[in-house]
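Question: Hello, beginner here. Any chance you could explain the protein record under this note? Any guidance would be welcome.
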Amino acid sequence: MKVKTILVSQPEPQTENSPYFDLAQKHKVKVDFRPFIHVEGVDAAEVRKQKVNIPSHTAVILTSRNAVDHFFRICEELRFNVPNEMKYFCTSEAIAYYLQKYVVYRKRKIYFGTATFADLIPLIKKHKDEKFLLPSSDVLKPEIPKLLKDNKINYTRAILYNTVSSNLSDLADVYYDVLVFFSPSGIKSLFENFPDFEQGETRIAAFGSSTHKEVKATGLKLDIKAPTPKLPSMTMALEDYIKKVNKK
């Protein structure tokens, strides 16, 4: 079957030059966006229950913009003034620049990797004497604590926000040719909202090995897989699939 409609389970890109918009225009397909999950911050009382002493840490590992927002939110709730000497280790340059929302960028010690958490490890190892804080969601990629443990990094994980399923009831009678997922939580949200969901002729696209595993674990068929050596992005994988099925 040809692909005419795609639902991406993420917020709509805020930039006009998103590859999703290019994909839609080039192949005359409709691409909609709808977050299947969202995050909710935990309060200061919950953080205290975790017995996390934020002031005792000298560096922060930041893996997302959500981690940045909730780190500074909880510091404010705890009335902790983050010292200028605090070091920040970010998994990407984009996250590093996002820190400008809270700190004077050029006056802080900020380090960032190129894309993956593994890329950040060499930088962290150069500062092994620091005591690291890892602000995170209740859902954390297992390779992150594994890499920190394997490299004997002194760190504390602080769960500052939870990943929860969004209400998708308005999509009950809406059909898409392709559903695009980026995390196991997105797949879980699908079934929490629609317990009787049957794939039928709907194609499933998934990004990342953990998402691939979740698709298969729930009995769904994985039609579009990313990343691969030839197709490193989801939009490239979608375009490759569309070219094959829409030319028939």
User: Anything to note?
Assistant: The domain at 40-163 is CATH 3.40.50.10090 (Rossmann fold). The longest strand covers residues 155-165. The longest helix spans residues 65-77.
